[in-house]
């Protein structure tokens, strides 16, 4: 494989429409090793970031589950359920339901 000189590489970058090149750009072996190490470090950082994000998401879900359990344990709880339409510019409520802690349900007649 033939390697380009710096001058050839500069000319090649200046004429990106040139199709045939009898050479290709290559890095010397020490740089390839350096780049491989950097790539491995970047991949490890990405795995750590992904794992940390997953842990944070799991913690948040647990917090929300605990909050919901505490709210649902309240005897004075009343749940308001609404259904809306987004077909127009202005959303409209199309159905309402109220559910008491005893399970009694009141719905709109429409």
Description:
The chain has 110 residues and is α+β, with helices and mostly antiparallel strands. Helix content is 48%, strand content 18%. The protein has 2 helices and 3 strands; from the N terminus they run H-H-E-E-E. The protein has helices at residues 6-14, 29-72; strands at residues 78-85, 92-100, 105-107. It has a 3-stranded antiparallel beta sheet with strand order 1-2-3, with no helix packed on it. It is elongated. The chain starts with 5 loop residues before the first helix and ends with a strand.
Q: Which class of secondary structure composition applies to the elements?
A: alpha+beta
Helix and strand element order: HHEEE
Portion in helices: 40-55%
Mean pLDDT value: 82
Total strands: the figure is 3
Q: Poorly predicted ranges (pLDDT <50, ≥5 residues)?
A: none
Query: What percent of residues are in strands?
Result: 15-25%
What value does the Rg take, in angstroms?
A: 32 Å
Number of helices: 2
**What is the general shape?**
elongated
Distance between the termini: 78 Å
Q: What characterizes the major β-sheet?
A: 3 strands, antiparallel
Spatial strand order of the main sheet: 1-2-3
Tag the structure with descriptive keywords.
110 residues, alpha+beta, three-stranded antiparallel sheet
Topology (elements, then pairings):
Blueprint (H helix, E strand, L loop, with lengths): L5 H9 L14 H44 L5 E8 L6 E9 L4 E3 L3
Antiparallel strand pairs: 1-2, 2-3
Provide a concise account of the structure shown.
With 110 residues, this protein is α+β, with helices and mostly antiparallel strands.
């Amino acid at each position: 494989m033939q390697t380009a000189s710096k001058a050839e590489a500069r000319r090649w970058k200046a004429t990106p429409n040139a199709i045939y090149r009898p050479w290709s750009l290559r890095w010397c072996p020490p740089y390839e090793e350096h780049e491989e190490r950097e790539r491995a470090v970047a991949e490890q950082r990405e795995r750590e970031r992904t794992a940390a994000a997953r842990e944070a998401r799991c913690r948040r879900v647990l917090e929300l589950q605990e909050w919901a359990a505490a709210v649902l344990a309240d005897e004075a709880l009343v749940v308001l359920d609404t259904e809306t339409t987004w077909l127009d510019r202005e959303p409209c409520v199309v159905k309402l339901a109220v559910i008491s802690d005893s399970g009694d349900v009141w719905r709109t007649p429409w």
